[in-house]
Amino acid sequence: MSLSELKPGNTAIVETILGGRHLRQKLVNFGMIPGTEIHVVRANRLGPMVLIVQGAQIMLGAGMTKRINVRKK
Amino acid sequence: MSEKNDYIIAFAGNPNCGKSTLFNALTGARQQIGNWPGVTVEKIEGRFTHNNKKFNLVDLPGIYSLTPNSEDERVSRDYVLSGKADLVVNIIDSSNLARNLYLTAQLIEMKVPLVIVLNMMDLAEGSGVRIDMDHLSAHLKAPVIGISAVNQKDIGVFKDFLEEYTEKKIIPGAGLKYPNEIEDLVASLITRIEGKASELGINPRWMALRLIEEDPWITEEIIGGGLIRSEDLTSELDVIKNILAETPDMIIADYVYGAVNGIYREVTHRVKKVKPVSDRIDAFAMNTILGIPVFFAVMMLVFFVTIEVGNIFVDLFDNLAGIVFVDGFRALLSSVNAPGWLTFFAADGIGAGIQMVVSFIPFVFFMFLMLSLLEDSGYMARAAFVMDRFMGKLGLPGKAFVPMIVGFGCTVPAILATRTLDNRRDRMMTIFMVPMMSCGARLPVYALFAAAFFPSRTGLVVFSLYMTGILVAVLSGLLVKKTLYHGEPSHLIMELPRYHVPRAKHILLHTWARVKDFIKRAGQVIIIAVFILSIFSSISMDGKFNPENGTDSILAALGRILTPVFIPIGIAADNWPATVGLFTGIFAKESIIGTLSAVYSQIDGGKASGSGLHALRAHFTPAAAYSYLLFVLLYMPCLAAIAASIREVNVKFGLVQALYLTLVAWIVSTLFYQIAEGRNPLYIGMALGLTAVVISAFKITGHVFARSRR
Question: Which residues, listed in sequence order, are joined to residue B12 by a DSSP beta bridge?
Fold first, then answer.
């Protein structure tokens, strides 16, 4: 499923990232790589999400969360 | 080359790791802020002396990795690789150890002399995490020290630590192991690139790994240098991709994170579970509904502090500067019997210019102070979050909001701040909207007029102007989005820093640096503008010098010619000084006040003595005054801002922007004045007609663009 479908409180594992090298590298900088566990702190329709990745809070825009596939835990 | 008692130390670390606080604690005010050559990334240097040895510190930009995807990362990577630093100091936010160690791992692979500083130990312990430093040091095979920058005793220990390791120059021994397929290729590549690596002074293993990651720079060096054929490398990489079913850069990142997380788990002990205060504040500040009023409340606080507190100091600064630079110059030159014209130009030209620069320092200072507070407290990132949805409607990323906020301080740095945006489309749209964010230089104009016409509602009047600017910017953004730039914005990705109590020293140093830069850049233009103005205003059309008779000057003639254009916005036919003010405002917005008070005092002679407020009241009705302020808010930005716009995009863009803003200013002010007071249907019709013309012009340009793209 897409990361954008998750609700606050959900935990999931990143499976694939659809996007070019540039997008992937930016996500890598924050530790968002396939296999990483993420926790959704804040999410609402259309707006950006706040996630806990590698122990830090990261904001991700709606356009990006749609391109990340996750497996819900 | 550095001598035995003169060392260079580079600070590297994630954004928000407390790097600048440590830097400030070591160097105090002995700092230099400039730009890295060729890019706009800030370069901060400082120095300190310890045990008779000189240490020169370079604060690299805050970065998350050394994979050069941005200018910040490129600058940092190049500097670390250059070997200029005797020691690289990796500063880590202890309360966010796992993520921070990713950069550490990359630094270790570069094989440069490195030490690790666990900063903000106090914070980590407060959040319930204990770090075993000896264990960490053993894993990384690098020296580790733990400090908290707020503790003065720690700073002394830190200096000893830096001294010790700049001499020892320990290169960390830790090495990461990647899957066999990658290790085999690394080994085979090293034999082929070793020569090139030692020529560049770079570790060959690091270079081989970057080659596998398809890093553009390293690939160019190797392929371009003819060391390995492009087809060979591609086929070797394809083998790996097939076996591991993933791109090599992701596999390498995966292994680095794997190692980092392993170390993290081993060296940390969760003592207790604490819910950070940040989360509790964010329940309000980032709430879907509450976040918006919180945001506006914070913005209002920023402006009221800037205006009200700034106002207290403006008169003081203005009077003091007047005594020194205007009266002082005049007295000095008169005492040596200098000719009258020379005294005039020195005192009323250059002296008055300096006085003007000095008088707006309080406003600029408080504006920058509030901006620094927002940045340092961590609220700025929340503002970007709250605004992302809203900015998305304009087709802009939430990050574009930051240049807009900076625009409230000064348009010029705001235009430069758009470089943080990822694509050209976002940058052009943001630059287009930034001048409508009312800059600090326009504030004195509002403050003076509001004091003259709306003394009991100064704050409200000023606030309404800022809001109008934002509204017009939003409408302009929608217009541009609908007609010119249809594409998709780049997306928000940023770390949410924890809130912390703003650090007074850091903020003051930062604010002071910004004010200094602003004075230097704006100051020159203003002094020149005032000087030119004094020539124009004291020389009449027939070439005679007469400072007393402003009504015959070249400037007055120019103002008289142009005034009819401004009658619809409420400038009376005989109020040509108001037009002259708009003209000088192009040099610098705040010089409008100087012009008005100078020209009014000349034409009104001795009879309207006293404050400039009386003069203003004599020449404007309250509605005309507000309309004039609307025009000042919106019309073309100052020359420095136009120049920045031209430099960042191109000449056509800068000029079209200036024209657009001036037309919009005329339309808005005319509509306001005619509806409020003038009631002239012809002018209202003209304003509406012009609006239609502007919109059509955008539509036609949009079509031309679309066709030329096809």
Answer: B90
> A61–B286: do the CB atoms touch at under 8 Å?
no
- B53 and B159 in a single domain? The answer is yes
Whether residues A63 and B489 touch (CB distance < 8 A) is answered with yes
Residue B687: is its pLDDT beyond 90? yes
Contacts of residue B204, defined as CB under 8 A and 6 or more positions apart, other chains included, come to: B190, B193, B194, B197, B198
**What pLDDT, on a 0 to 100 scale, did the predictor assign at position B291?**
86
Select from B491, B494, B495 the residue whose CB has the most chain A CBs within 10 Å, as the one to mutate to test that interface.
Answer: B491
pLDDT in tens, B181-229: 899 999 999 998 888 888 888 899 999 999 898 888 888 888 888 888 8
Secondary structure (DSSP) of B178-233: --HHHHHHHHHHHHHHHHHHHHHT--HHHHHHHHHTT-HHHHHHHHHTTSS-HHHH
Q: Is-contact A57 B96, C-beta < 8 A?
A: no
pLDDT tens per residue, range B542-572 = 777 776 666 678 888 888 899 999 999 999 9
Region of poorest pLDDT, from B36-40, B470-474, B545-549: B36-40
Contacts of B489 in chain A (CB under 8 A): 63
Residue where a domain stops, chosen among B270, B286, B307: B270
Please check whether the domain covering A3-72 is classified as CATH 2.30.30.90: yes
Residue B35: pLDDT over 50: yes
Q: B259 and B122 in one domain? A: no
**Number of separate domains in chain B:** 2
According to the 3-state scheme, what is the secondary structure of B339-366?
CHHHHHHHHHHHHHHHHHHHHCHHHHHH
Whether residue B61 contacts residue B41, with contact meaning beta carbons closer than 8 Å, is answered with yes
Half-sphere exposure of B580 (CA within 13 A, CB side): 29
Which stretch, B4-8, B164-168, B632-636, has highest mean pLDDT? B632-636
Is the confidence at residue B410, as pLDDT, over 80? no
Final residue of a structural domain among B243, B270, B297:
B270
Q: Is B254 in CB contact (< 8 Å) with chain A?
A: yes
